[in-house]
């Protein structure tokens, strides 16, 4: 998979995409992430990519020309399965969305900044709009990093044990069950005996029961879908 990201602050994406599982995915050649500085396509020698909004009001708006040129330049080299704009008014990002995107080949993510991007870019280029939650960030870079991480870890071969992703929270609309490690007795707090029984079937049943219980207690809305 290849993911291209357009940003006015590419340095914000350096650390999140250079360590841990994302580094492993890139080192294995399973994921390519290329961050492009929007100012490459600025409208003048000063690197201008934003301007005041028509109608007045506080906040600058990212201009259509640099974004259009960036998208068209990148699209000339490859076809994108989705051109994504991360925005608070997009569709809420969830595990099914991550699963869906993980099956794509090429993605392009646009990081907004300031007051957002010119609406004409959204109308004529963007094919998917994603929100990571009902709050506003200073820019789309952190949201883009979250999307890349959530999608990248699902690629076959990225995790050492591919079944691990299947037990994550929100798969099958359930939260993950409790997990334990050694020692079996810590300060008198003991690991449930079933997990040390060596019976895979009973352990699987227990984990499912615990996942259902935890979901009912903490996120009953997930079970109403």
Strand order of the largest sheet: 2-1-6-5-7
Helical segment count:
6
Which structural category do the helix and sheet elements fall into?
alpha/beta
Give the helices and strands as they follow along the chain. Answer: EHEEEHEHEHEHEEH
The overall pLDDT, averaged over residues, is 93
* C-alpha termini separation: 30 Å
Tell how many strands the DSSP assignment holds.
Answer: 9
CATH H-level superfamily title of the largest domain: SPOUT methyltransferase, trefoil knot domain
Helices and strands in order:
Layout: E1 2-7, H1 20-27, E2 32-37, E3 50-52, E4 60-62, H2 64-75, E5 82-92, H3 95-101, E6 106-111, H4 119-124, E7 128-131, H5 141-152, E8 185-186, E9 189-190, H6 200-218
Brief overview:
This protein is an alpha/beta fold and 225 residues long. The chain has helices at 20-27, 64-75, 95-101, 119-124, 141-152, 200-218, and strands at 2-7, 32-37, 50-52, 60-62, 82-92, 106-111, 128-131, 185-186, 189-190. It folds into two domains: 2-152, SPOUT methyltransferase, trefoil knot domain (Alpha/beta knot, 3-Layer(aba) Sandwich); 169-224, Orthogonal Bundle (Trp Operon Repressor, Chain A), CATH 1.10.1270.20.
């Amino acid at each position: 998979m290849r993911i291209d990201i357009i940003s006015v602050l590419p340095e914000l994406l350096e650390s999140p995409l250079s360590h841990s599982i994302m580094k492993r995915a890139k080192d294995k050649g399973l994921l390519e992430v290329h961050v492009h500085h929007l100012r490459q396509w600025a409208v003048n020698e000063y690197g201008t990519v934003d301007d005041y909004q028509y109608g007045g009001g506080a906040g600058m708006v990212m201009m259509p020309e640099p974004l259009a040129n960036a998208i068209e330049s990148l699209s000339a080299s490859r076809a994108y399965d989705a051109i994504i704009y991360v925005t608070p008014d997009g569709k809420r990002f969830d595990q099914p969305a991550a699963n869906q995107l993980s099956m794509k080949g090429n993605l392009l993510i646009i990081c907004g900044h300031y007051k957002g991007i010119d609406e004409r870019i959204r109308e004529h280029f963007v094919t998917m709009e994603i929100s990571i939650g009902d709050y506003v960030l200073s820019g789309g870079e952190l949201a883009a990093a979250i999307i890349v991480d959530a999608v990248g870890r699902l690629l076959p071969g990225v995790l050492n044990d591919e079944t691990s992703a299947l037990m994550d929270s929100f798969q099958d609309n359930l939260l993950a069950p409790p997990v334990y490690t050694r020692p079996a007795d810590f300060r008198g707090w003991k690991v449930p005996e079933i997990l040390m029984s060596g019976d895979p079937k009973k352990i699987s049943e227990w984990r499912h029961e615990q996942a259902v219980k935890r979901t009912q207690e903490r996120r009953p809305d997930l079970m109403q879908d």
